[in-house]
Design a protein that fits this description.
With about 150 residues, this protein is mainly alpha-helical. It has helices at about 5-30, 40-65, 70-80, 85-110, 115-120, 125-130, 135-145.
């Protein structure tokens, strides 16, 4: 196992774990009585998630070479090679996949009204509101009462 690659990938995943424990967990348990303090629950959740992340990163680092999968940016960084050169072959497929994914996702939501789109993807609302403010006003209040617009 490549220990340096494991460590780099594990450390790269830790901010997401900390963010989930500190930002999301309090919202999930809000209004519920906890037998222990919230900071202790956050710490336990983060520790558990970090252990699971380590386990899955280890499995990935061990098994990925068997199926010709790589982490080119991290591998280049660890070998002191240019990261941009390692990522260059992925730019066109990444852009193509992102554009096609956006088209598919957008066309799946197109038949829904603006309020239903907001329920499925709240991040869409500011863009719709900016371009078509009249579409959002009444329908959003019906779908999501109290949502600040």
């Amino acid at each position: 196992m490549n220990a340096r690659l494991f460590l780099a990938l594990w450390v790269a995943g830790l901010p997401g774990i900390v963010a989930a424990a500190v930002l999301v967990l309090p919202q999930i348990v809000a209004g519920h009585h906890l037998p222990i303090s919230l900071p202790l629950v956050e710490l336990a959740s983060a520790a558990q998630s970090a252990v699971f992340l380590a386990l899955f990163v280890m499995v990935g680092v061990v098994l990925a070479p068997m199926v010709a999968l790589h982490a080119p940016a991290f591998e280049a960084w660890l070998l002191h090679r240019p990261v941009a050169a390692a990522l260059r072959p992925q730019i066109a497929p990444g852009l193509l996949g992102g554009i096609l994914g956006g088209i598919v996702y957008g066309t799946m939501l197109l038949p829904l009204g603006v309020s239903e789109v907001a329920v499925h993807d709240v991040a869409v609302v500011p863009f719709i509101e900016h371009q078509h403010p009249a579409l959002v006003d009444m329908r959003m209040e019906v779908a999501m009462p109290g949502l600040p617009l």
